[in-house]
Amino acid sequence: MNDYSAFLRNKMRIATATGFEVRESDLNPRLAPHCRRIVQWALRGGQRAIFANFGLHKTSIQIELMRKIRNTDGGLCLIVLPLGVKQEFFDEAEERFAGDCAVRLKFIRSTAEIGNELDGRVEGNPLIYLTNYESVREGKIDVSRFVAASLDEAAVLRGYGTKTFQTFLPLFEKVKYKFVATATPSPNRLKELIHYSGFLGVMDTGQALTRFFQRNSEKAGDLTLFPHKEEEFWLWVHSWAIFLQKPSDLGFSDEGYQLPPMKVNWHEVKLDPRSAGYDRDGQGLLIHNAALGVTQASLAKRESLDARIEKMCALIAEDPEAHRILWHDLEDERRAIEAAVPGVASIYGSQSIEVNEANALGFKHGRIRDLATKPEMSGAGCNFQKHCHWEIFVGIGFKFHDFIQAVHRIVRFGQVHECRIDIIYSEAEREVRRVMERKWRDHDEMMERMAGIVRKYGLDKLPVADLLKRSVGLERRVETGDSFKIANNDCVEEARLTADNSVGLLVTSVPFSNHYEYTESYNDFGHTDDNDHFWSQMDYLTPELLRIIQPGRLACVHVKDRVLFGAVTGEGVPTISPFHAEAIFHYLKHGFQYCGMITITTDVVSENNQTYRLTYSEMMKDASKMGVGCPEYVLLFRKPQTDRSKGYADERIVHQPPQVIAADGSHVPWTDGDRRAHVPGSGYTLARWQLDAHSFWPSSGNRLLTTDEMVRMGPKVVSDLFKQLQDSAQVYDFDEHVRLGEELAARDNLSKTYMTLAPRSKHPAVWTDIVRMRTLNGEQAQRNLEKHVCPFQIDIVDRLIDRYSNPGDVVYDPFGGLMTVPYRAILKGRRGQASELSDKYFRDGLRYCRAAEAKIAVPDMFDVLDAVAEAAE
């Protein structure tokens, strides 16, 4: 199809504009120029994020956005905010919105309070509703009533698994205009930025994660930004978010917007050495271990409370009349502060909202000298810089977002004094300090990077040309040998260059939709939005594969279903995408005949370590949410033969017949219909056919070992012996299987990293004896080269080649990877052919093919282990 190039170019996505244009002259003239500029941009986009530095008037920007939408669209508008920030909006509306731009704000806690205000106006002015996050999350506000919504201090959306994120995503899905505003969009991990895009409707969160972040296949949730996608990621973010450090980033004057100097002082206090504890042998410790975990850090906080309060008092004594914020995390810390600091006002959760607000306003306006509060309660939105330029953190924790927000309650534009930040921590919390400082540096670097993009491109010129730097197409490179031909090329383009009916067998492991991206090219099948998008690209490849395969021959397609995490789908429970079923219908649609599938079991314990989907603890809580492990499949498809009156391929796959025993005892060739006994091991025997077609494996006569015998051997040996046991003809006993596992676990001999007693199948349609690590990645790891993220197991390839091809046939793989298929085809007397998009994989695969052709045994992991064992003997 000639539109394949257009399909690839359509993969290049930036956020679309769904709003409306507004002239700057129609905006509130009391807003700062940079604010009016951002309002224009956000209204045009319709769904945008405003990540502006502390003191750059995000409050005014949000009010103006709602005012213009209310006047233009006519629907109700809502701003969702933390309770502690409510008064800031009323103050801002009174100070900056007057005359023709006047607005009225109304705080509500339920839908019933919306009332019947005429046309959404009060005294002729647009009415904008405010509410707190808890009211929305608890279902008290009917969000569907609103045409526009803005989330202030929107960092509450940072986590997938949080109740706020899971609740807000579906609630606000139909809201026409959506905005988020915060000064700290992603202080911890870059991937948190995509949570905002998911809420805004820019891109599905799961899709964005897959597009930009690489997965650690051995650990669930471990995602890092692809190095080759770093620039594209930031430019994509720029298409829907504004990161503003100062007005000059948008070309305006910075007059009045200079951040004050800040001096950070770290104070380490000593702990009583008698509280250091004991090691595992019962020996007393002389020093405290660094508290790396939340639980250990909490214990260290309590042990150091008296020392930290004493240090706080010493610091206060340096300037007793100054105004200070005394940040703390624990209620015991608050009570200790109240006992040590006369006249201190406190804000805490069990206090009434009215008293909380009175204390916050009293401190803001200078009527209160010392304020004790928690970062999670007063760290967001409150502006305390007018009368205060000193903060004391009576302790530290792991929540950097709360910490950095708390710092910037006084370090803001408009602050005229140098800010002093004193941070008190114990010697057991040195690691907590180290992590906090690293996160602080990462935050500053991220904000500066995005500000640099704003300075470079502005808000009007989206950098489409830079997004196009991701390649489309590549210069074809072909390498050949006596028994192979491999190409560094797009698989669709390469298949188009392959002759009709020239391939005897196709063996491939297709990309599992958008689960991985293998290259930075848009040609990559992994660079797709979802399953439908992936199969749309496969629609260009599969007809070519049908054309090049010989009539009657097979395409063997390795696939695996995909785990869909409940935090991403909103289902609340992990579900399975039936990718193998979609593959079946895809190939049927293009004219292949479906002949069945081979099941390859996987280690459920290892899978759980990767996905946390089948945890024992969750099973105990509710068995209804636990499914089963995901096997892999090899789907068998056949290109219809030319002569439909017969079932034979145009060029048959013929196995060598066995020898039979003649009457005189000699061995003679078997002929069709011959009923004489086959000579074992000679050609393709009747016994082999029965196993290939439908049968069970014969018994070895082994018996189960006792638990005592197994414990002495260790879990690895037990695992190997159990595999051998299940290859025997002994009748499987599930209860005995469970009992054995329980006894091993009771003696701490049941592995938690792999399945010690994995179930085994004797049926030839279910392959449980595939060596999971026997891939060309073994050699890659030894040579310190890049590993292929989804290597194809050698065992699978060997069986398929033996079963479904003749010597001399072309065995083809459109997704060559490390060239496992042509490599094994060469060693088995076939001709290998493949294409691969990645230049790195292509170069390594070429080496393997040349080595195979030269009859050099390329060692895999098991070869190396055997050699080491022999050397040790």
From TrEMBL:
Stored InterPro entries: DNA_methylase_N4/N6, P-loop_NTPase, SAM-dependent_MTases_sf, SNF2-like_sf
Keyword Phosphoprotein: no
GO biological process: methylation
Domain (DNA methylase N-4/N-6) ranges: 505-841
Name of the protein in its database record: site-specific DNA-methyltransferase (adenine-specific)
Taxonomic lineage: Bacteria, Pseudomonadati, Pseudomonadota, Alphaproteobacteria, Hyphomicrobiales
Catalytically driven reaction(s): a 2'-deoxyadenosine in DNA + S-adenosyl-L-methionine = an N(6)-methyl-2'-deoxyadenosine in DNA + S-adenosyl-L-homocysteine + H(+)
EC code(s) of this entry: 2.1.1.72
Pfam families (alphabetical): N6_N4_Mtase
Keywords: Methyltransferase, Transferase
Keyword Methyltransferase recorded: yes
An annotated Gene Ontology molecular function: N-methyltransferase activity
Organism of derivation: Rhizobium lentis
